Amino acid sequence: MSDVRAAAGNANRPMSPHLQVYRPLINMVMSILHRMTGVALYFGFILLAWWLTAAAVGADYFNYVNGIFGSLLGKVVMFGFTWALLHHMMGGIRHFIWDTCRGLDIGSVKMLSFMTGFVSVIGTLLIWAAVGFAG
């Protein structure tokens, strides 16, 4: 196979496209982030189950878990969980729109992809601002 490629003058061309060939597009980035946030949510919901279990076990254990979640590292993790939840939800809404055969032209795909990122970041900031002012 390589002899045939070299003879044809295509020795430097890759066998198949890869990330070194393609420039990352916004819809590619959002697709990758959608999958990554899905994995992150799996672990985030384990933490939520731990918190709910602690509430059922008793006040002392609940206060211990709340102390962990209330630490700086815990707040960073919860902030990330909030963003992952909103980003994954916005990605799901984007895919639902596409499932209805709407928004499939290039301009709409770009706009929906940018809006997914924008709404997830702004929504996370608004939720945490509301929590910060309430607490």
Q: How many domain units?
A: 1
Q: N- to C-terminal separation? A: 67 Å
- Arithmetic mean pLDDT: 90
- Under the CATH scheme, which architecture would be assigned? Up-down Bundle
Under the CATH scheme, which class?
Mainly Alpha
Helix-strand topology string: HHHHH
Range of helix content? over 70%
What percentage of the residues does DSSP assign to strands (E)?
under 5%
* CATH level-4 homologous superfamily: Fumarate reductase/succinate dehydrogenase, transmembrane subunit
In the predicted model, the low-confidence regions spanning at least 5 consecutive residues are none
Rg on CA atoms, Å: 22 Å
Alpha-beta classification = mainly alpha
What attributes characterize this protein structure?
135 residues; mainly alpha; 3 helical TM bundles of succinate and fumarate reductases; 5 helices; 79% helix; 0% strand; elongated
Secondary structure: elements and pairs:
Blueprint: H1 2-7, H2 26-57, H3 59-70, H4 72-99, H5 106-134
